């Protein structure tokens, strides 16, 4: 495959599971845009700007990866970027069922956009940002789950009480 793929997500925070998909996608596609979703209906731990910066630091050694953000429908962002492929990671059957619904809806909205599913490495199949935040909240180690700079950012977030 060649071309550009968009790898969307909330990345709150980025984990080694995300990085696995990004790195492998970067081997398949000429360019991968990692797109951070800004969902005003949710209260993430990290701001969009913080998530973008964490991702930039995480992917700085992958030359064909850039980081961006978007708000609204993914399909609109994909059209705006003139990209034909959405790259999504799957951990388990439950992910597939959800992602299939999203991919089917996106295909209904724009038949020219394809979704490429990639299974995450088995060693990350249990890993989610929610689980990482829960572990970090109680000051347990997340060293094996996220890059060092993300762990430091989590420690800082949970050092002071959240409003």
UniProtKB/TrEMBL annotation:
Residues annotated to bind substrate: 10, 42, 74, 88
Coiled coil segments of this chain: none
InterPro entries in UniProt: Cyt_trans-like (IPR004821), PPAT (IPR001980), Rossmann-like_a/b/a_fold (IPR014729)
A single cellular component GO annotation: cytoplasm
HAMAP family assigned: PPAT_bact (MF_00151)
Assembly description: Homohexamer.
Protein name: Phosphopantetheine adenylyltransferase
Source organism of the structure: Scopulibacillus darangshiensis
């Amino acid at each position: 495959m060649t071309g550009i793929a968009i790898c969307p997500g909330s990345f709150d925070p980025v984990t080694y599971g995300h990085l696995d998909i990004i790195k492998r996608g970067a081997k398949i596609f000429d360019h991968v845009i990692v797109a951070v979703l800004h969902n005003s209906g949710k209260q993430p731990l990290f701001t969009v700007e913080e998530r973008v910066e964490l991702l930039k630091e995480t992917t700085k050694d992958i030359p064909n990866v850039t980081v961006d953000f978007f708000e609204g429908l993914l399909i609109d962002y994909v059209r705006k970027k003139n990209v034909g492929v959405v790259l999504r990671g799957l951990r388990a059957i439950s992910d597939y069922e959800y992602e299939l619904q999203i991919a089917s809806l996106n295909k209904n909205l724009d038949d020219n956009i394809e979704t490429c599913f990639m299974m995450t490495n088995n060693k990350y199949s249990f890993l989610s940002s929610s689980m990482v935040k829960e572990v970090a909240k109680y000051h347990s180690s997340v060293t094996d789950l996220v890059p060092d700079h993300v762990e430091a950012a989590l420690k800082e977030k949970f050092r002071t009480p959240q409003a």
